[in-house]
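Memo to structure team: turn this sequence into structure tokens by end of day. - J.P.
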Amino acid sequence: MILDGRELSKKIKEDVKKEINSLDFTPCLATLLVGDDPASKIYVKNKDKACEQVGIKSITKNLPTQTTKIQVIQAIEELNNNPSVHAILLQLPLPPQLNAEELVEFIYPSKDVEGFHPVNMGRLVTEKNSIAPCTPAGIIELLKHYEINLKGKDVTVVGHSIVVGKPLALLLLKEWSTVTLCHIETRDLTKHTKHADIVIVAVGKPGLIKEDMVKNNVVLVDVGTTKVDDKIVGDADFEAIKDKASAITPVPGGVGPMTVAMLMKNTVKCAKRNR
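Reply from structure team:
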């Protein structure tokens, strides 16, 4: 079974559009883009297109690569204090002189559309009504849509970033999965992936998960996207694993579209809170 993120993302965006049509105001998402990272530009372009589709006002503030920490904070404060802006996205990665985790703390938690602020992360830990990071939230939505039961399942997550791995582990625990979180210092990765019912990989290393590293009927979710010879590939060997897996995400077309769809959903959530 191919877990088609493109189709599900269309449905989510249609639901978001209906919700926006019922509001008496237009939600506004502001993006801060520092530098000229090619992947970031593509993501912002896709984000703008999705906003237009659902009826969200999208504005982007471009800052040069050499922008200082103080200048980024000033830009964030302007958006924090603008009542017509309901959600703020600090596009990652940032240039090397800037610390993303430090700068995210300056975004008001109620406008933190990606849920990276420590307050929102804390709410995620305590299972409050938090704004969950878009990619992990999208993965959970995708698995639920295809009726893949998470309760009691052994799930191995490869990659422990604040963007995917850590918040995803918390969301899986909320669904009563038994979670193993692996990372670059994990000594025997195969030991943890081989017996997992569900393997989710998000490290950006093409072909990391091979056919002999997973069991029969595994559910494999591939978050990785790397350009190799003008082709976008994931972190798993899709062709070798697809016949062994009971369900698998394609790259592209799996998790990626879900991330943008959940960004739309989170924007409306922020907009309602700020109103």
